[in-house]
Structure formats: structure tokens, C-alpha cells
Amino acid sequence: MNNFTNLAHIAILASALGWSGIASAFDFGVGTGCSAIGGVDATSLSNGDTFIGRIGSTAVSGFNKNGKPADNSDTDAFTNSVEECINDALVGYCTTVLGDDTNFISVTPGATSGKANNKQLFTVVFENIEGCGISQCSDHVDNDSDTFTDYPKDPQCRDYDDNVEDGDEDESA
Q1: Below-50 pLDDT ranges, the chain
Q2: What is the distance between the alpha carbons of residues 97 and 172, in angstroms, rounded to a whole number?
Q3: Torsion angles phi and psi, residue 18, rounded to 5
Q4: Cis peptide before 152 (omega within 30 of 0)
Q5: Fewer CB within 10 Å, N- or C-terminus of the chain?
């Protein structure tokens, strides 16, 4: 068994046993270059809840193999890719993850894999769940039936907390 299969079994067993703080689903199929536990309801998060993801090692370390920094528009401890990976995996969003998320989440790098060690596990701990919710642009549903689901894939969604997926109104959750 590889590391990802072992981790999946641990997460499923933990959920079945009712252990708190470990997500109930384990899906490494979310997003381009990003895979994380999917289906975690942002409104049911508690401080201390944890989930596991996998992404390109540049996103976790912050630097590619030539030393060039990864995008980090809010200049906090985490790259844009890791922050987007976390929010894309949630049913809902945490606005604090997209801004300066210091004191809201912690990310711990894990083992690397791949031919060039270019994939890396990471563990996210929600330290402060303030700013987490669900909107039409983050609920994993194609609310306006245009074949696009949620931000950033639906062009009618400006961000995760946009609450009207059809773009006709300017509302927030």
C-alpha cells in the first residue's frame, strides 16, 4: 500500500469510529494540481479540525526547484495554491484562508512523492473557524445550471462568498 492509501484508510477508520478532528471523506481528486479531502462542510468545522491534502511541492514549500518563489499575493505563510486548494475542498469557504490566514490555519508539510518528489502531502489544522460559511458559489452545486460549478470555475462567481451564482444580483452570504 502507498502512503495515500494508508492515509485514506486512517481517515475512513477515524470517521467510522467517530474520532473528532478528522474529516469524514477522503478524496484526492479535487482540482488541478491539488487534491484534498473533499466534502467537508465549512459550517460544521470546529477549531482544531484537521484534513489532509496533496499538492505540488512548490505550493507547500513556497519555492520551485530553481529557487523561484511560488505566488503568494497576501504575503502570509501559505502560497495562493495551498489556500485555493483548501477552499476548493470545502463545501463552503473560509474567507480568512484567502487573506492573511496567520492564526486561522496551520499547514504542516508531509512526505513527498512522484518521480521528482514534486507532490507533497500537507495537513491543515483550522485554528480559528471565524469567517467560514457556505454560499451558492461554494456549495459544490451548479445552482444556475450553466455547467459551471462554483468559484473559480463559474464565471458568474466573483469569489467564494458570492451568494448568487447566476450573476444577476450582487449579494454576499
Answers
A1: 1-31, 170-173
A2: 17
A3: 75, 20
A4: yes
A5: N
